[in-house]
Each structure stands twice: as structure tokens, then as C-alpha cells.
Amino acid sequence: MINVTQLGYAGVNVVELDALEHVLGKVCGAEVRRDDNRLYARVDERHHRMAFYAADRMSLAYMGLEVESLDALRAAEDELRRKGLEVTRATAAEREERAVLDMIHLKGPDDIRIELYFGALVEKQPFKPGRAISGFVTGDLGLGHVVLASSDREAATRFYTEHFSFRLSDYIFWDEAEATFLHCNPRHHTLALMNPCFGMVPGQFNHLMLQVGSLDDVGRAYDMVHQMKIPMVMTLGRHTNDQMTSFYIRTESGFAIEYGYGGVEVDDRDWDVKVFNAPGLWGHTLAA
Ligand SMILES: [Fe+2]
The VOC domain covers which part of the protein (predicted)? Predict the structure, then answer.
């Protein structure tokens, strides 16, 4: 069992960068750095936590899962190889691009690229948000959460909970949707796996959640989205399971950014796994 401490970073292939740069910087408040084919987004002291690459189609390029030391990374590599999984060591160029000390990668369910790493680079310069916000909730909780469609949700859940230290948070079943929520630290979920419902295809990247430190950060972004006529997937609402108050921005590449405040934290010593029959307590209606 490999102890994963957080989702440290994520990479996404996107078909559009200009509007994304605006949304991440001016609406969400990330610090964005752009070159021709790549957008880095910084949300805390680290060099970056998100990278977006110009591509022909949208997909999750990789998830960066953190382990606690270089020794732990070596042990993880040995363990995965012993289990017969194919593991590749990062090249020097990949380590530099991700801004980590070392990294290995493997293919997870639905060919999702999982990167295990240690040693995320911390920037000398302070984080400079793209607009005035209280800040992002990251630190030991990691970047946020990722939601994926799985061809076999139960097999994918076994993969993440048997090879890695992901633990069950809860389930939501509604309409045609089945969702399993997994945590690896107190953040309610770092990874959620859904059946390929609502027109999603297996392996499809549905959304990335960014959590901010104040409800006002969310409210001001919500105002901006209305003023700027930025499309939404779901309106403001509150989730049943993680109790996050959030809304979902629709990016032009097709994935969503959930922008939220106030998610509950899991204490593994005293956690009840529940089954919910709806994702929302209120709001979160599908936007036209
Ligand atoms: Fe979410």
C-alpha cells in the first residue's frame, strides 16, 4: 500500500487557452503564466499546481500524487513493480517541467496517467493572485479534487484503494449517475469516480475543484461570471456529501472548474460512510 498524501498537481490537455487564462486568473484568482502552448496556474507557494497544454482534444494529461519522501517514492516503485505494474521513471525534462525533485508514472484505470512524486518546488516569490481573494485552501489538503468517468467504477475504486491509500468517503446515486468519493487526507474527496453517465465517455475528465478560503471569494466570482457571461455547468449550490458551497464554470475545452468554499474534512477515526440520493442540498441546477 502506497501512502499518498495529496493530489499535488494536475495537468490537462485543452483545446483552448485564451478564455481559460482569463477564467483562471481574473475569475478564480490563480496566478497564471502563459507561453504559446502551455498555461501554468499557481495557487499557493508552489511553482504551480496546474498545467494546461494546447492539444487537439481535452483530456486529463496526468494527476500528480504526492508521497512523503524520496525513500517512499523508491519503495513505491519497487512495490508497483512487484505487483506487475509497469512503472516508468521521469526524464530530467519531465521533472523540470513538473517542478519536482523526482517522479515516476504509471497507467491507471482507463489509461489515466498517474504520476507519483516527491519534492514540489517552492517559489521564492510570494503567490500573487490574479484578483483580490482571501486565498486557496491547499497545503496538506492538496490542489483540490478531480472527478473522472470510469468504464468500471468498482474496479477503478479497487485500484486506487488497494494500491494507494485512498479511502472511501461516501457514495451518491442519482438519476443515471453513480459516484464514489475517495479521500487521501482530510479533504472530503481528492478523487471521485463516476459511471459514464450524462454522455460522458470512460476516462473522461469531468471537473477540477478549487477551494477558496471565503464564501465571499465564491460570491464575487459568481457575480463576475454573470457580468462577463461566462458559461456555467451548474449554478451556485451546496453539495450533500462534502457540504461544499460552489458553482461550476464550463470551460471552452469541455471540462468544468468547480469553485467552492467550506467543504467538510474527514477524520478517519470517526467517519461514517454514507449513501446519498442527490448531489445537492439546494441550487446546483443545470445552467442553460
Ligand atoms: Fe466536485
Answer: 6-119, 142-262
Compute, in angstroms, the gap from residue 220 CA to the centroid of ligand 1: 19
**Which pLDDT belongs to residue 175?**
95
Domain ranges of the chain: 6-120, 139-283
**What is residue 288's predicted lDDT score, i.e. its pLDDT?**
66
Query: pLDDT at position 287, please?
Result: 85
Which amino acid is it at 80?
A: L
pLDDT value, residue 36: 87
State whether residue 269 is helix, strand or coil: helix
Ligand 1 centroid to 207 CA: how many Å? Answer: 7
Q: Distance, CA 172 to ligand 1 centroid (Å)?
A: 12
Cell digits for 266?
Answer: 474527514
Residue ranges, the chain, pLDDT below 70: 288
Please list the residues that pair with 168 across neighbouring strands. 182
Percent helix, strand, coil in the chain, to 5, is 20, 40, 40
Q: Which three cell numbers stand for residue 78?
A: 519497487
**Residue 49 near residue 65 (C-beta atoms within 8 A):** no
Distance 193 CA to ligand 1 centre (A): 11
Q: Are 234 and 259 in contact (CB under 8 A)?
A: no
3-state class (DSSP) for residue 209: strand
Q: What is the CATH number of domain 139-283?
A: 3.10.180.10
**Is residue 25 helix, strand or coil?**
helix
Query: Does domain 6-120 match CATH 3.10.180.10?
Result: yes
CA distance 157 to 178: 12
C-alpha cell at 135: 486565498
181 CA to centre of ligand 1 in angstroms = 10
Q: What is the largest CA-CA distance in the chain?
A: 55
Residue 118 confidence (pLDDT): 98
